[in-house]
Write a structure and sequence with these properties.
Layout (H helix, E strand, L loop, with lengths): L7 H10 L3 H8 L13 H11 L3 H9 L3 H10 L7 H8 L5 H13 L6 H6 L3 H17 L5 H5 L2 H6 L6 H15 L3 H15 L4 H14 L2 H10 L1
Protein backbone atom coordinates (compact mmCIF):
# COMPACT_ATOMS: atom_id res chain seq x y z
CA UNK A 1 0.00 0.00 0.00
CA UNK A 2 1.47 3.35 -1.02
CA UNK A 3 1.03 6.63 0.83
CA UNK A 4 2.78 9.81 1.96
CA UNK A 5 5.44 7.84 3.83
CA UNK A 6 6.33 5.68 0.83
CA UNK A 7 9.95 5.93 -0.29
CA UNK A 8 11.09 6.47 -3.88
CA UNK A 9 12.02 2.78 -4.03
CA UNK A 10 8.55 1.79 -2.78
CA UNK A 11 6.87 3.92 -5.40
CA UNK A 12 9.05 2.67 -8.23
CA UNK A 13 8.28 -0.91 -7.22
CA UNK A 14 4.57 -0.08 -7.24
CA UNK A 15 4.79 1.60 -10.64
CA UNK A 16 6.47 -1.48 -12.10
CA UNK A 17 3.46 -3.60 -11.12
CA UNK A 18 1.28 -1.36 -13.33
CA UNK A 19 3.32 -1.86 -16.50
CA UNK A 20 1.25 -2.23 -19.68
CA UNK A 21 2.87 -3.21 -22.97
CA UNK A 22 -0.31 -2.32 -24.85
CA UNK A 23 -0.30 1.18 -23.36
CA UNK A 24 3.39 1.61 -24.18
CA UNK A 25 2.62 0.83 -27.82
CA UNK A 26 -0.20 3.36 -27.76
CA UNK A 27 2.07 6.05 -26.33
CA UNK A 28 4.44 5.70 -29.27
CA UNK A 29 1.64 6.75 -31.61
CA UNK A 30 1.52 10.10 -29.80
CA UNK A 31 5.24 10.73 -30.18
CA UNK A 32 6.06 9.84 -26.57
CA UNK A 33 9.52 8.41 -26.03
CA UNK A 34 8.94 5.00 -24.45
CA UNK A 35 12.46 3.65 -23.92
CA UNK A 36 11.93 3.65 -20.15
CA UNK A 37 8.14 3.87 -20.07
CA UNK A 38 5.85 1.61 -18.06
CA UNK A 39 2.71 2.60 -19.93
CA UNK A 40 0.81 4.24 -17.07
CA UNK A 41 -1.64 6.95 -18.10
CA UNK A 42 -1.32 10.52 -16.86
CA UNK A 43 -4.68 10.41 -15.00
CA UNK A 44 -3.50 7.28 -13.19
CA UNK A 45 -0.20 8.99 -12.37
CA UNK A 46 -2.03 12.04 -11.05
CA UNK A 47 -4.16 9.82 -8.82
CA UNK A 48 -1.00 8.24 -7.40
CA UNK A 49 0.49 11.69 -6.83
CA UNK A 50 -2.57 12.79 -4.87
CA UNK A 51 -2.29 9.69 -2.71
CA UNK A 52 1.41 10.05 -1.87
CA UNK A 53 1.42 13.88 -1.50
CA UNK A 54 4.32 16.26 -2.08
CA UNK A 55 7.81 15.33 -0.91
CA UNK A 56 10.61 17.27 -2.56
CA UNK A 57 13.48 15.08 -1.37
CA UNK A 58 11.67 11.98 -2.59
CA UNK A 59 10.93 13.69 -5.91
CA UNK A 60 14.64 14.23 -6.45
CA UNK A 61 15.22 10.51 -5.89
CA UNK A 62 12.39 9.55 -8.23
CA UNK A 63 13.90 11.67 -10.98
CA UNK A 64 17.22 9.83 -10.76
CA UNK A 65 15.55 6.56 -11.75
CA UNK A 66 15.27 7.58 -15.43
CA UNK A 67 11.90 5.79 -15.59
CA UNK A 68 9.29 7.85 -17.45
CA UNK A 69 6.53 7.40 -14.89
CA UNK A 70 8.85 7.91 -11.93
CA UNK A 71 9.93 11.20 -13.45
CA UNK A 72 6.33 12.24 -14.01
CA UNK A 73 5.62 11.41 -10.37
CA UNK A 74 8.64 13.49 -9.40
CA UNK A 75 7.20 16.46 -11.29
CA UNK A 76 3.75 15.98 -9.79
CA UNK A 77 5.04 15.70 -6.21
CA UNK A 78 7.99 18.11 -6.12
CA UNK A 79 7.48 21.18 -3.97
CA UNK A 80 7.46 24.33 -6.16
CA UNK A 81 8.59 26.38 -3.18
CA UNK A 82 11.75 24.29 -2.89
CA UNK A 83 12.56 23.95 -6.58
CA UNK A 84 15.57 26.07 -7.53
CA UNK A 85 16.75 27.33 -10.90
CA UNK A 86 19.78 25.07 -10.60
CA UNK A 87 17.63 21.98 -10.06
CA UNK A 88 15.29 22.94 -12.90
CA UNK A 89 18.24 23.35 -15.26
CA UNK A 90 19.60 19.97 -14.19
CA UNK A 91 16.28 18.27 -14.88
CA UNK A 92 16.02 20.04 -18.24
CA UNK A 93 19.30 18.41 -19.26
CA UNK A 94 17.41 15.09 -19.16
CA UNK A 95 14.40 16.17 -21.21
CA UNK A 96 13.79 14.03 -24.28
CA UNK A 97 10.01 13.66 -24.57
CA UNK A 98 7.34 16.33 -25.00
CA UNK A 99 4.94 15.24 -22.26
CA UNK A 100 7.70 15.34 -19.64
CA UNK A 101 8.60 18.83 -20.85
CA UNK A 102 5.03 20.10 -20.66
CA UNK A 103 4.49 18.69 -17.17
CA UNK A 104 7.79 20.21 -16.03
CA UNK A 105 6.83 23.56 -17.56
CA UNK A 106 3.75 23.75 -15.35
CA UNK A 107 5.89 23.00 -12.28
CA UNK A 108 8.52 25.56 -13.27
CA UNK A 109 5.82 28.21 -13.63
CA UNK A 110 4.36 27.33 -10.22
CA UNK A 111 7.88 27.65 -8.83
CA UNK A 112 8.17 31.18 -10.23
CA UNK A 113 11.07 30.30 -12.52
CA UNK A 114 10.11 32.56 -15.43
CA UNK A 115 13.65 34.06 -15.46
CA UNK A 116 14.78 30.73 -16.95
CA UNK A 117 12.75 31.27 -20.12
CA UNK A 118 15.21 33.40 -22.16
CA UNK A 119 18.13 31.06 -21.46
CA UNK A 120 16.10 27.96 -22.25
CA UNK A 121 14.83 29.54 -25.48
CA UNK A 122 18.43 30.27 -26.46
CA UNK A 123 19.43 26.64 -25.83
CA UNK A 124 19.60 24.79 -29.15
CA UNK A 125 18.44 21.46 -27.70
CA UNK A 126 14.93 20.77 -29.00
CA UNK A 127 13.29 19.84 -25.72
CA UNK A 128 15.00 22.52 -23.66
CA UNK A 129 13.85 25.16 -26.13
CA UNK A 130 10.37 23.66 -26.06
CA UNK A 131 10.41 24.09 -22.27
CA UNK A 132 10.74 27.85 -22.63
CA UNK A 133 7.67 28.18 -24.81
CA UNK A 134 5.66 25.60 -22.87
CA UNK A 135 6.36 27.74 -19.79
CA UNK A 136 5.09 30.85 -21.58
CA UNK A 137 1.95 28.97 -22.64
CA UNK A 138 1.41 27.76 -19.08
CA UNK A 139 2.08 31.15 -17.51
CA UNK A 140 -0.40 32.87 -19.84
CA UNK A 141 -3.15 30.62 -18.49
CA UNK A 142 -2.24 29.98 -14.87
CA UNK A 143 -0.52 33.18 -13.68
CA UNK A 144 -3.76 35.13 -13.58
CA UNK A 145 -2.45 37.92 -11.34
CA UNK A 146 0.77 38.38 -13.31
CA UNK A 147 0.87 41.73 -15.16
CA UNK A 148 0.07 41.42 -18.86
CA UNK A 149 3.40 43.11 -19.58
CA UNK A 150 5.23 40.01 -18.41
CA UNK A 151 3.55 37.86 -21.04
CA UNK A 152 3.66 40.53 -23.72
CA UNK A 153 7.37 40.80 -23.03
CA UNK A 154 7.81 37.29 -24.42
CA UNK A 155 6.40 38.15 -27.86
CA UNK A 156 9.82 39.19 -29.27
CA UNK A 157 11.19 35.82 -28.10
CA UNK A 158 8.34 34.07 -29.89
CA UNK A 159 9.11 36.01 -33.06
CA UNK A 160 12.83 35.26 -32.78
CA UNK A 161 12.29 31.50 -32.68
CA UNK A 162 9.30 31.23 -35.01
CA UNK A 163 11.57 29.91 -37.76
CA UNK A 164 12.70 26.82 -35.81
CA UNK A 165 11.25 24.00 -37.94
CA UNK A 166 11.62 21.23 -35.37
CA UNK A 167 8.21 19.78 -34.62
CA UNK A 168 8.23 20.06 -30.85
CA UNK A 169 9.61 23.59 -30.92
CA UNK A 170 7.33 25.07 -33.58
CA UNK A 171 4.24 23.63 -31.90
CA UNK A 172 5.28 25.11 -28.55
CA UNK A 173 6.04 28.51 -30.08
CA UNK A 174 2.58 28.44 -31.69
CA UNK A 175 1.02 27.35 -28.39
CA UNK A 176 2.69 30.20 -26.50
CA UNK A 177 1.50 32.79 -29.03
CA UNK A 178 -2.08 31.50 -28.98
CA UNK A 179 -2.26 31.39 -25.19
CA UNK A 180 -1.01 34.94 -24.82
CA UNK A 181 -3.62 36.01 -27.35
CA UNK A 182 -6.39 34.29 -25.43
CA UNK A 183 -5.53 35.98 -22.13
CA UNK A 184 -7.57 39.19 -22.62
CA UNK A 185 -8.27 41.93 -25.18
CA UNK A 186 -4.99 43.76 -24.59
CA UNK A 187 -2.88 40.65 -25.04
CA UNK A 188 -5.06 39.50 -27.92
CA UNK A 189 -4.44 42.66 -29.93
CA UNK A 190 -0.66 42.38 -29.65
CA UNK A 191 -0.51 38.61 -30.16
CA UNK A 192 -2.75 38.83 -33.21
CA UNK A 193 -0.58 41.58 -34.66
CA UNK A 194 2.43 39.28 -34.34
CA UNK A 195 0.47 36.36 -35.79
CA UNK A 196 -0.37 38.44 -38.86
CA UNK A 197 3.25 39.46 -39.25
CA UNK A 198 4.43 35.86 -39.03
CA UNK A 199 1.72 34.71 -41.45
CA UNK A 200 3.30 36.96 -44.07
CA UNK A 201 6.87 35.87 -43.32
CA UNK A 202 9.08 34.34 -45.99
CA UNK A 203 9.93 31.44 -43.70
CA UNK A 204 7.64 28.41 -44.02
CA UNK A 205 7.60 27.58 -40.31
CA UNK A 206 6.92 31.16 -39.25
CA UNK A 207 4.06 31.33 -41.77
CA UNK A 208 2.51 28.16 -40.36
CA UNK A 209 2.76 29.47 -36.79
CA UNK A 210 1.28 32.82 -37.75
CA UNK A 211 -1.57 31.46 -39.84
CA UNK A 212 -2.55 28.83 -37.30
CA UNK A 213 -2.46 31.31 -34.41
CA UNK A 214 -4.40 33.93 -36.39
CA UNK A 215 -7.04 31.34 -37.28
CA UNK A 216 -7.71 30.51 -33.64
CA UNK A 217 -7.46 34.06 -32.39
CA UNK A 218 -10.12 35.21 -34.87
CA UNK A 219 -12.55 32.40 -34.11
CA UNK A 220 -15.92 33.46 -32.71
CA UNK A 221 -15.30 31.48 -29.53
CA UNK A 222 -12.00 33.17 -28.73
CA UNK A 223 -13.19 36.66 -29.69
CA UNK A 224 -16.17 36.27 -27.38
CA UNK A 225 -13.94 35.02 -24.57
CA UNK A 226 -11.42 37.87 -24.71
CA UNK A 227 -14.16 40.47 -25.01
CA UNK A 228 -15.74 39.06 -21.85
CA UNK A 229 -12.39 39.27 -20.05
CA UNK A 230 -11.85 42.83 -21.19
Amino acid sequence: MIGPSSSAADLIAHLRTLRSEEAITGMRRFGIVTDTALGISNPAMQAIARKVKRDHTRALELWKSDIREARLLALYTADPKQLTQTQARKWADDFRSWEIVDTAADLFVKAGLLPLIPDMAADDREFVRRTAFAMIASAAVHMKTEPDETLIGFLPLIERHANDPRNFVRKAVNWALRNIGKRNQHCHALAFKLAERLAADADKTARWIGKDAARELTSEKILARVQKKG
